[in-house]
Task: inverse folding
Protein backbone atom coordinates (compact mmCIF):
# COMPACT_ATOMS: atom_id res chain seq x y z
CA UNK A 1 0.00 0.00 0.00
CA UNK A 2 1.32 3.44 -0.92
CA UNK A 3 1.46 6.19 1.68
CA UNK A 4 -0.82 8.24 -0.59
CA UNK A 5 -3.70 5.74 -0.76
CA UNK A 6 -7.00 7.57 -0.12
CA UNK A 7 -5.22 10.88 0.41
CA UNK A 8 -7.06 13.87 -1.04
CA UNK A 9 -4.66 16.35 -2.58
CA UNK A 10 -5.57 19.72 -4.00
CA UNK A 11 -3.05 20.69 -6.64
CA UNK A 12 -2.89 24.44 -7.26
CA UNK A 13 -1.30 25.61 -10.49
CA UNK A 14 -0.26 29.26 -10.95
CA UNK A 15 1.09 31.08 -13.99
CA UNK A 16 4.67 30.00 -14.58
CA UNK A 17 6.32 28.11 -17.43
CA UNK A 18 6.79 25.16 -15.04
CA UNK A 19 2.98 24.71 -15.13
CA UNK A 20 3.43 22.04 -17.84
CA UNK A 21 5.41 19.93 -15.33
CA UNK A 22 2.39 19.97 -13.01
CA UNK A 23 0.61 17.68 -15.46
CA UNK A 24 3.37 15.10 -14.87
CA UNK A 25 3.10 15.71 -11.13
CA UNK A 26 -0.66 15.14 -11.26
CA UNK A 27 -0.12 11.78 -12.97
CA UNK A 28 2.55 10.79 -10.46
CA UNK A 29 0.35 11.67 -7.47
CA UNK A 30 -2.51 9.65 -8.92
CA UNK A 31 -0.24 6.70 -9.68
CA UNK A 32 0.83 6.76 -6.01
CA UNK A 33 -2.81 6.37 -4.96
CA UNK A 34 -3.86 9.97 -4.26
CA UNK A 35 -7.16 11.48 -5.28
CA UNK A 36 -6.31 14.83 -6.90
CA UNK A 37 -8.39 17.89 -7.76
CA UNK A 38 -6.81 20.74 -9.69
CA UNK A 39 -7.31 24.48 -9.18
CA UNK A 40 -5.77 26.87 -11.73
CA UNK A 41 -5.29 30.62 -11.60
CA UNK A 42 -6.14 32.61 -14.71
CA UNK A 43 -2.42 33.18 -15.39
CA UNK A 44 -1.81 29.40 -15.28
CA UNK A 45 -4.35 28.96 -18.07
CA UNK A 46 -2.11 31.05 -20.34
CA UNK A 47 0.48 28.24 -20.11
CA UNK A 48 -1.62 25.05 -19.99
CA UNK A 49 -5.33 24.63 -20.62
CA UNK A 50 -7.71 23.36 -17.93
CA UNK A 51 -8.69 20.64 -20.39
CA UNK A 52 -5.24 19.04 -20.04
CA UNK A 53 -5.67 18.69 -16.28
CA UNK A 54 -9.32 17.71 -16.62
CA UNK A 55 -8.45 14.92 -19.03
CA UNK A 56 -5.60 13.67 -16.83
CA UNK A 57 -7.42 13.90 -13.50
CA UNK A 58 -10.82 12.79 -14.77
CA UNK A 59 -12.42 15.66 -12.84
CA UNK A 60 -13.45 19.20 -13.68
CA UNK A 61 -10.73 21.77 -13.04
CA UNK A 62 -11.66 24.62 -10.72
CA UNK A 63 -10.77 28.07 -11.98
CA UNK A 64 -13.38 30.54 -10.75
CA UNK A 65 -14.37 31.97 -7.40
CA UNK A 66 -18.12 32.46 -7.07
CA UNK A 67 -18.96 31.05 -10.52
CA UNK A 68 -22.44 29.52 -10.05
CA UNK A 69 -21.60 26.59 -12.35
CA UNK A 70 -18.39 25.64 -10.54
CA UNK A 71 -19.73 26.43 -7.06
CA UNK A 72 -22.62 24.07 -7.74
CA UNK A 73 -20.27 21.08 -8.12
CA UNK A 74 -18.17 22.00 -5.03
CA UNK A 75 -18.16 25.46 -3.43
CA UNK A 76 -14.83 26.99 -2.46
CA UNK A 77 -15.18 26.32 1.27
CA UNK A 78 -16.17 22.67 0.69
CA UNK A 79 -13.16 22.33 -1.62
CA UNK A 80 -10.87 23.69 1.11
CA UNK A 81 -12.40 21.22 3.61
CA UNK A 82 -12.24 18.31 1.14
CA UNK A 83 -8.43 18.35 0.89
CA UNK A 84 -6.00 16.56 3.22
CA UNK A 85 -3.16 18.59 1.76
CA UNK A 86 -2.71 21.51 -0.63
CA UNK A 87 0.30 21.69 -2.96
CA UNK A 88 0.75 24.76 -5.13
CA UNK A 89 3.20 23.93 -7.91
CA UNK A 90 4.40 26.08 -9.50
CA UNK A 91 3.95 28.96 -7.05
CA UNK A 92 4.84 32.27 -8.71
CA UNK A 93 6.30 35.34 -6.97
CA UNK A 94 2.95 37.06 -7.37
CA UNK A 95 1.02 34.16 -5.83
CA UNK A 96 3.45 34.02 -2.88
CA UNK A 97 3.01 37.78 -2.39
CA UNK A 98 -0.75 37.38 -2.40
CA UNK A 99 -0.82 34.62 0.23
CA UNK A 100 1.72 36.55 2.32
CA UNK A 101 -0.78 39.40 2.41
CA UNK A 102 -3.83 37.24 3.00
CA UNK A 103 -5.50 38.09 -0.32
CA UNK A 104 -8.63 36.26 -1.39
CA UNK A 105 -9.08 37.71 -4.86
CA UNK A 106 -9.20 34.44 -6.78
CA UNK A 107 -10.15 30.84 -6.07
CA UNK A 108 -6.68 29.48 -5.20
CA UNK A 109 -5.69 32.30 -2.81
CA UNK A 110 -9.12 32.02 -1.15
CA UNK A 111 -8.64 28.27 -0.68
CA UNK A 112 -5.25 28.86 0.93
CA UNK A 113 -6.82 31.37 3.30
CA UNK A 114 -9.78 29.12 4.16
CA UNK A 115 -7.86 25.85 4.48
CA UNK A 116 -6.90 24.40 7.85
CA UNK A 117 -4.82 21.59 6.32
CA UNK A 118 -1.06 21.85 5.66
CA UNK A 119 -0.07 23.77 2.54
CA UNK A 120 3.19 23.43 0.59
CA UNK A 121 4.35 25.82 -2.11
CA UNK A 122 6.89 24.92 -4.81
CA UNK A 123 8.26 28.32 -5.89
CA UNK A 124 9.16 28.84 -9.56
CA UNK A 125 10.41 32.15 -10.90
CA UNK A 126 13.35 34.01 -12.40
CA UNK A 127 16.41 33.98 -10.09
CA UNK A 128 16.36 37.78 -9.72
CA UNK A 129 12.71 37.69 -8.66
CA UNK A 130 13.45 34.91 -6.16
CA UNK A 131 16.42 36.78 -4.65
CA UNK A 132 14.56 40.10 -4.51
CA UNK A 133 14.18 41.36 -0.97
CA UNK A 134 10.38 41.65 -1.40
CA UNK A 135 10.07 37.96 -2.34
CA UNK A 136 12.43 36.92 0.46
CA UNK A 137 10.35 38.97 2.91
CA UNK A 138 7.18 37.25 1.69
CA UNK A 139 8.86 33.84 2.04
CA UNK A 140 9.77 34.63 5.63
CA UNK A 141 6.21 35.79 6.31
CA UNK A 142 4.55 32.68 4.91
CA UNK A 143 7.04 30.38 6.64
CA UNK A 144 5.91 32.06 9.86
CA UNK A 145 2.30 31.26 8.91
CA UNK A 146 3.26 27.58 8.72
CA UNK A 147 3.44 27.18 4.92
CA UNK A 148 6.01 24.61 3.82
CA UNK A 149 8.36 25.71 1.07
CA UNK A 150 9.62 23.01 -1.22
CA UNK A 151 12.46 24.31 -3.36
CA UNK A 152 13.31 26.14 -5.46
CA UNK A 153 16.13 24.33 -7.23
CA UNK A 154 19.15 26.05 -8.75
CA UNK A 155 20.15 25.76 -12.39
CA UNK A 156 19.33 26.85 -15.93
CA UNK A 157 16.12 28.82 -16.20
CA UNK A 158 13.59 29.09 -19.04
CA UNK A 159 14.50 32.79 -19.38
CA UNK A 160 18.12 31.85 -20.16
CA UNK A 161 19.55 32.89 -16.77
CA UNK A 162 21.11 30.57 -14.20
CA UNK A 163 20.43 30.59 -10.47
CA UNK A 164 17.87 29.69 -7.80
CA UNK A 165 14.22 29.71 -8.87
CA UNK A 166 13.56 26.48 -10.81
CA UNK A 167 10.60 24.48 -9.60
CA UNK A 168 11.60 21.13 -8.06
CA UNK A 169 11.09 18.32 -10.56
CA UNK A 170 7.79 16.39 -10.30
CA UNK A 171 9.58 13.26 -8.92
CA UNK A 172 11.15 15.34 -6.13
CA UNK A 173 7.78 16.92 -5.28
CA UNK A 174 6.11 13.49 -5.25
CA UNK A 175 8.81 12.22 -2.85
CA UNK A 176 8.13 15.16 -0.53
CA UNK A 177 4.38 14.54 -0.54
CA UNK A 178 5.04 10.84 0.23
CA UNK A 179 7.42 11.80 3.03
CA UNK A 180 4.81 14.11 4.43
CA UNK A 181 2.25 11.30 4.64
CA UNK A 182 4.71 8.59 5.71
CA UNK A 183 3.87 7.45 9.25
CA UNK A 184 6.30 8.99 11.77
CA UNK A 185 7.85 7.07 14.68
CA UNK A 186 5.27 8.61 17.05
CA UNK A 187 2.22 7.68 14.98
CA UNK A 188 -0.76 7.00 17.30
CA UNK A 189 1.10 8.58 20.22
CA UNK A 190 -0.65 11.55 21.82
CA UNK A 191 1.45 14.31 23.30
CA UNK A 192 0.15 17.04 25.59
CA UNK A 193 2.33 20.13 26.04
CA UNK A 194 2.20 23.34 28.01
CA UNK A 195 4.05 26.42 26.74
CA UNK A 196 4.38 30.16 27.29
CA UNK A 197 4.01 31.93 30.60
CA UNK A 198 0.90 32.38 32.72
CA UNK A 199 -0.62 35.72 33.74
CA UNK A 200 -2.07 36.00 37.24
CA UNK A 201 -4.55 38.87 37.55
CA UNK A 202 -4.17 41.52 40.27
CA UNK A 203 -7.16 43.61 39.18
CA UNK A 204 -9.10 43.99 35.88
CA UNK A 205 -6.14 45.62 34.12
CA UNK A 206 -2.98 44.25 35.79
CA UNK A 207 -1.34 40.88 36.18
CA UNK A 208 1.78 39.18 37.52
CA UNK A 209 3.58 37.56 34.58
CA UNK A 210 6.99 36.43 33.38
CA UNK A 211 9.22 36.81 30.34
CA UNK A 212 8.57 33.42 28.70
CA UNK A 213 8.36 33.88 24.91
CA UNK A 214 6.90 30.42 24.28
CA UNK A 215 9.47 29.85 21.51
CA UNK A 216 10.98 26.67 22.95
CA UNK A 217 7.56 25.15 23.64
CA UNK A 218 6.16 26.04 20.21
CA UNK A 219 9.27 24.68 18.46
CA UNK A 220 8.90 21.45 20.45
CA UNK A 221 5.23 21.20 19.46
CA UNK A 222 6.25 21.37 15.79
CA UNK A 223 9.04 18.84 16.28
CA UNK A 224 6.73 16.34 18.04
CA UNK A 225 4.05 16.87 15.36
CA UNK A 226 6.63 16.20 12.65
CA UNK A 227 7.50 12.88 14.34
CA UNK A 228 3.89 11.88 13.69
CA UNK A 229 2.44 12.50 17.17
CA UNK A 230 -1.06 13.85 17.78
CA UNK A 231 -0.21 17.02 19.66
CA UNK A 232 -2.35 19.15 21.98
CA UNK A 233 -0.91 22.47 23.13
CA UNK A 234 -2.15 24.36 26.17
CA UNK A 235 -0.59 27.77 25.84
CA UNK A 236 -0.32 30.92 27.89
CA UNK A 237 -0.45 34.30 26.11
CA UNK A 238 2.46 34.61 23.63
CA UNK A 239 3.01 36.56 20.43
CA UNK A 240 3.38 33.42 18.27
CA UNK A 241 0.87 31.88 15.89
CA UNK A 242 -0.38 28.42 16.92
CA UNK A 243 1.43 25.73 14.88
CA UNK A 244 -0.71 24.07 12.21
CA UNK A 245 -1.91 20.46 12.43
CA UNK A 246 -2.36 20.36 16.21
CA UNK A 247 -5.12 20.89 18.80
CA UNK A 248 -4.70 24.27 20.48
CA UNK A 249 -6.14 25.76 23.67
CA UNK A 250 -5.21 29.14 25.01
CA UNK A 251 -5.37 30.02 28.70
CA UNK A 252 -4.32 32.92 30.87
CA UNK A 253 -3.79 31.70 34.43
CA UNK A 254 -2.04 28.74 36.06
CA UNK A 255 -5.37 27.48 37.37
CA UNK A 256 -6.85 27.52 33.85
CA UNK A 257 -3.78 25.69 32.54
CA UNK A 258 -4.12 23.17 35.36
CA UNK A 259 -7.79 22.49 34.49
CA UNK A 260 -7.09 22.08 30.75
CA UNK A 261 -4.16 19.74 31.39
CA UNK A 262 -5.81 17.59 34.07
CA UNK A 263 -8.87 17.09 31.80
CA UNK A 264 -6.59 15.43 29.24
CA UNK A 265 -3.59 14.04 31.16
CA UNK A 266 -4.93 10.51 31.62
CA UNK A 267 -5.62 10.18 27.90
CA UNK A 268 -2.19 11.21 26.63
CA UNK A 269 0.96 9.11 26.27
CA UNK A 270 3.50 11.87 26.82
CA UNK A 271 3.18 15.08 28.85
CA UNK A 272 5.79 17.82 28.36
CA UNK A 273 5.64 20.82 30.71
CA UNK A 274 7.52 23.63 28.98
CA UNK A 275 5.37 26.46 30.37
CA UNK A 276 6.76 28.95 32.83
CA UNK A 277 3.88 28.59 35.27
CA UNK A 278 3.57 31.23 37.99
CA UNK A 279 4.27 29.49 41.29
CA UNK A 280 2.08 32.04 43.10
CA UNK A 281 -0.99 34.16 42.29
CA UNK A 282 -2.55 37.10 44.11
CA UNK A 283 -4.83 35.62 46.80
CA UNK A 284 -7.57 38.05 45.90
CA UNK A 285 -8.26 39.70 42.57
CA UNK A 286 -9.56 43.26 43.07
CA UNK A 287 -12.90 43.75 41.30
CA UNK A 288 -12.03 47.34 40.37
CA UNK A 289 -8.75 48.85 39.24
CA UNK A 290 -6.53 49.47 42.28
CA UNK A 291 -5.90 53.22 42.74
CA UNK A 292 -2.56 54.56 43.95
CA UNK A 293 -3.44 55.85 47.38
CA UNK A 294 -0.52 54.79 49.58
CA UNK A 295 3.28 54.83 49.32
CA UNK A 296 3.44 51.07 49.28
CA UNK A 297 1.22 48.22 48.25
CA UNK A 298 1.37 44.61 49.42
CA UNK A 299 -0.12 41.71 47.60
CA UNK A 300 -0.68 38.46 49.38
CA UNK A 301 0.27 35.64 47.04
CA UNK A 302 -0.94 32.06 47.33
CA UNK A 303 0.58 28.90 45.82
CA UNK A 304 -0.60 27.66 42.46
CA UNK A 305 -1.04 23.93 41.90
CA UNK A 306 2.02 22.21 40.41
CA UNK A 307 0.77 20.85 37.10
CA UNK A 308 3.81 18.69 36.34
CA UNK A 309 3.94 17.13 39.82
CA UNK A 310 0.21 16.36 39.78
CA UNK A 311 0.32 14.76 36.32
CA UNK A 312 3.32 12.62 37.38
CA UNK A 313 1.42 11.51 40.48
CA UNK A 314 -1.57 10.17 38.53
CA UNK A 315 -2.10 6.39 38.75
CA UNK A 316 -2.18 6.24 34.97
CA UNK A 317 0.50 8.90 34.50
CA UNK A 318 1.87 9.44 30.98
CA UNK A 319 5.61 9.61 30.29
CA UNK A 320 6.45 13.01 31.80
CA UNK A 321 9.06 15.57 30.78
CA UNK A 322 9.74 18.76 32.75
CA UNK A 323 12.03 21.75 32.42
CA UNK A 324 14.26 23.31 35.04
CA UNK A 325 15.72 26.78 34.60
CA UNK A 326 18.51 27.30 37.11
CA UNK A 327 21.10 30.02 37.71
CA UNK A 328 23.56 27.81 39.65
CA UNK A 329 24.27 24.12 40.38
CA UNK A 330 22.13 23.40 37.33
CA UNK A 331 22.36 19.60 37.29
CA UNK A 332 22.08 19.11 41.04
CA UNK A 333 19.00 21.32 41.36
CA UNK A 334 17.42 19.87 38.21
CA UNK A 335 17.94 16.29 39.42
CA UNK A 336 16.43 17.21 42.80
CA UNK A 337 13.43 18.68 40.93
CA UNK A 338 13.12 15.53 38.80
CA UNK A 339 12.99 13.33 41.86
CA UNK A 340 10.72 15.65 43.86
CA UNK A 341 8.17 15.85 41.05
CA UNK A 342 8.49 12.20 40.03
CA UNK A 343 9.27 13.14 36.42
CA UNK A 344 10.67 10.67 33.85
CA UNK A 345 12.97 13.17 32.15
CA UNK A 346 14.02 16.72 32.95
CA UNK A 347 15.57 19.26 30.59
CA UNK A 348 17.75 21.65 32.53
CA UNK A 349 19.12 24.93 31.33
CA UNK A 350 21.29 27.63 32.75
CA UNK A 351 19.57 31.02 32.93
CA UNK A 352 20.97 34.40 33.89
CA UNK A 353 23.95 34.14 31.53
CA UNK A 354 24.55 36.20 28.37
CA UNK A 355 23.31 33.47 26.01
CA UNK A 356 20.28 31.19 26.07
CA UNK A 357 17.13 31.32 28.16
CA UNK A 358 13.66 32.84 27.85
CA UNK A 359 14.05 35.70 25.41
CA UNK A 360 16.94 34.36 23.36
CA UNK A 361 16.63 32.48 20.06
CA UNK A 362 19.26 30.02 21.27
CA UNK A 363 19.51 27.63 24.16
CA UNK A 364 21.44 24.62 25.49
CA UNK A 365 19.99 21.80 27.59
CA UNK A 366 21.17 19.01 29.85
CA UNK A 367 18.78 16.06 29.86
CA UNK A 368 18.56 13.95 33.00
CA UNK A 369 16.67 10.71 33.45
CA UNK A 370 16.87 7.72 35.81
CA UNK A 371 20.47 6.59 35.51
CA UNK A 372 21.51 8.78 32.57
CA UNK A 373 22.34 12.23 31.26
CA UNK A 374 23.07 13.92 27.93
CA UNK A 375 24.12 17.46 27.05
CA UNK A 376 22.67 19.20 24.01
CA UNK A 377 25.00 22.14 23.20
CA UNK A 378 24.02 25.77 22.48
CA UNK A 379 22.04 26.00 19.20
CA UNK A 380 18.92 27.72 17.86
CA UNK A 381 15.68 26.73 19.53
CA UNK A 382 14.12 24.95 16.56
CA UNK A 383 17.20 22.71 16.08
CA UNK A 384 17.32 22.11 19.83
CA UNK A 385 13.61 21.26 19.87
CA UNK A 386 14.16 18.64 17.13
CA UNK A 387 16.96 17.02 19.13
CA UNK A 388 14.93 17.11 22.32
CA UNK A 389 11.88 15.62 20.55
CA UNK A 390 14.11 12.83 19.25
CA UNK A 391 15.41 12.03 22.79
CA UNK A 392 11.89 12.15 24.27
CA UNK A 393 10.75 9.73 21.53
CA UNK A 394 13.66 7.34 22.23
CA UNK A 395 13.12 7.27 26.00
CA UNK A 396 9.34 7.05 25.73
CA UNK A 397 9.56 4.09 23.33
CA UNK A 398 12.12 2.39 25.60
CA UNK A 399 9.83 2.74 28.63
CA UNK A 400 6.82 1.59 26.57
CA UNK A 401 8.66 -1.47 25.25
CA UNK A 402 9.83 -2.41 28.74
CA UNK A 403 6.26 -2.01 30.03
CA UNK A 404 4.90 -4.21 27.24
CA UNK A 405 7.48 -6.93 27.95
CA UNK A 406 6.44 -7.16 31.62
N1 LIG B 1 5.58 23.54 36.45
C1 LIG B 1 4.24 23.19 36.41
N2 LIG B 1 3.35 23.79 37.26
C2 LIG B 1 3.74 24.72 38.15
C3 LIG B 1 5.10 25.10 38.20
C4 LIG B 1 5.99 24.48 37.33
O1 LIG B 1 3.87 22.35 35.60
N3 LIG B 1 2.85 25.29 38.94
C5 LIG B 1 6.54 22.87 35.58
C6 LIG B 1 7.17 23.75 34.53
O2 LIG B 1 6.43 23.73 33.32
C7 LIG B 1 8.54 23.12 34.37
C8 LIG B 1 8.86 22.67 35.78
O3 LIG B 1 7.62 22.43 36.40
O4 LIG B 1 8.49 21.96 33.58
C9 LIG B 1 9.62 23.75 36.51
O5 LIG B 1 9.66 23.43 37.85
P1 LIG B 1 9.56 24.54 38.98
O6 LIG B 1 9.67 23.81 40.26
O7 LIG B 1 8.40 25.42 38.87
O8 LIG B 1 10.77 25.41 38.66
P2 LIG B 1 11.05 26.71 39.38
O9 LIG B 1 9.85 27.61 39.44
O10 LIG B 1 12.23 27.23 38.70
O11 LIG B 1 11.28 26.13 40.84
P3 LIG B 1 12.15 26.76 41.97
O12 LIG B 1 11.70 28.15 42.04
O13 LIG B 1 11.82 25.93 43.13
O14 LIG B 1 13.55 26.57 41.45
Result:
Amino acid sequence: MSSLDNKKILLGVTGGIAAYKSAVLLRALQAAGAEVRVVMTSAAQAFVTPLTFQALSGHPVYTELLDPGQEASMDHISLARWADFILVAPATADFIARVANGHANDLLSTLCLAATVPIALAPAMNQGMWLNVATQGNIETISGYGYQLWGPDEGDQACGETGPGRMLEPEALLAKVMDFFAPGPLQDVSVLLTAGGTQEPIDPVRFVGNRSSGRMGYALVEAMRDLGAEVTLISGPVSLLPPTGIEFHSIQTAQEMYAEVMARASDCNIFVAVAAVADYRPGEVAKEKIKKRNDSLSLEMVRNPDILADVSALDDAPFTVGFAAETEQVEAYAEAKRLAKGVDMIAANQVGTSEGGFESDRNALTLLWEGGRESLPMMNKSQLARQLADRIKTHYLKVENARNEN
